Amino acid sequence: MCVFRCYAARFDVDKFLARSPWKPESVSHRGQKRWPGAARASRTSGFNVLASKAGHDDWYGQVRGATRWLARHAKEIRRARRAVGKDALVLDFAWDFKRKTSASFLRLPLSLVHRAAALGVALEVSVYRCSR
User: Which helix (H) or strand (E) element contains residue 51?
Assistant: First the structure.
């Protein structure tokens, strides 16, 4: 799956989401723990929204879904950008690295890179080791 993250130290996440069409997967508030058992309180407030439902093993599905999501939500992404400032918006792709392979290569198409950059969204790939 691919998630859009929006976080900042000085961000009224509840006020932002009250006017947003997005239904976040998670919301966190500065000074509170992001999840039960977290070692420390969060230094930021923010939220995660699902940008692609494609699985960890469906790279091209994630890319297609996220590219469409960026186009469909450009206006709201710009509003988020104004609310949080720079370096606070991230599109995070999840990838399962299978142990039976010695390397894995993932390419992000220029169309996605350009669209994300134009909206001020950073790109990230989170790699998870799996035994399958």
Answer: strand 45-52
